[in-house]
Design goal:
Blueprint lengths: L1 H36 L1 E7 L2 E6 L4 H21 L5 H23 L1 H17 L3 H14 L3 E4 L1 H34 L66
Antiparallel strand pairs: 1-2, 1-3
């Protein structure tokens, strides 16, 4: 009937949502892991180019680990494990990936200056502190330009996809729990409340079927019917032929 069709469409929707959550988690983890291995920022100017990769600092290592967590959780969902196991890894990994990447983008200037100073110091065999001051002055003069690289954008995109997978997994689990509760008989008929038993059908006292035939009146109070008075008797104990009213029979 219509109820079965609706339940079937609802189950299919939950299954599709679970599969989509797994696909988003795999995509987000893969993209974030790839971005963690690439350049995050670069500096160009004065015939010099320096770049900072994600793995050159602790930030890229953290995002790579979080991306692996999201990736393996998504693969588990696609392999047949419950979508509920994706919520926590995807949410945690997505928050870590996005938070670290955004924080790195806001502090990219300082990190690129530090990376450029270290490279110049190693190439020219100069003191690191002196090289850092020189690179900072060059940047402030406008001769050195610093920009974000493709890898950092990929990490941010992967973190957003991981958060989307966590949201879909949470919604799929919530709808599955709601569907099992409504289909498990916890609602009583029409207008019933959760957890209440269904009312007995009309005309039934809830104590089993009534026996056939007329039923005695139980608990009813009717008029009291008194028996007729005994007929009068004569002095010899015989019935008085005149009747109870003293007249002729």
């Amino acid at each position: 009937g219509r109820g079965r069709d609706r339940r079937g469409r609802g189950a299919m929707t939950r299954s599709d949502r679970s599969g989509l959550a797994g696909i988003l988690a795999v995509m987000g983890g893969s993209i974030a892991a790839l971005g963690s291995l690439m350049e995050w920022a670069q500096a160009t100017g004065l015939g010099f180019r320096a770049s900072a990769r994600g793995l050159s600092g602790w930030e890229g290592k953290v995002t790579l680990l979080a991306a692996g967590l999201v990736l393996f959780a998504g693969l588990g969902v696609l392999a047949g494990s419950g979508v509920g196991r994706l919520r926590l890894p995807a949410a945690f990994g997505g928050l870590v990936i996005t938070g670290v990447a955004v924080a790195t983008a806001l502090t990219a200037r300082a990190q690129v200056i530090e990376g450029a100073a270290r490279q110049i110091s190693r190439r020219l065999n100069l003191p690191l502190e002196q090289t850092r001051d020189a690179v900072r002055g060059t940047f402030e003069s406008g001769a050195l330009r610093i920009g974000l690289a493709t890898g950092l954008y990929l990490v941010v995109a992967g973190g957003i996809l991981a958060l989307g997978a966590a949201a879909l997994a949470h919604r799929a689990v919530g709808r599955a729990a709601l569907g099992s509760a409504s289909g498990g008989g916890s609602l009583a008929g029409s207008g019933g409340r959760p957890g209440w038993p269904a009312p007995p059908p009309a005309g039934s006292s809830g104590r089993g079927p009534r026996p056939a035939g007329p039923q005695p009146a139980v608990g009813r109070v009717g008029p009291t019917v008194l028996p007729p008075p005994p007929p009068p008797r004569g002095p010899d104990g015989r019935l008085d032929p005149r009747g109870p009213m003293g007249g002729e029979p």
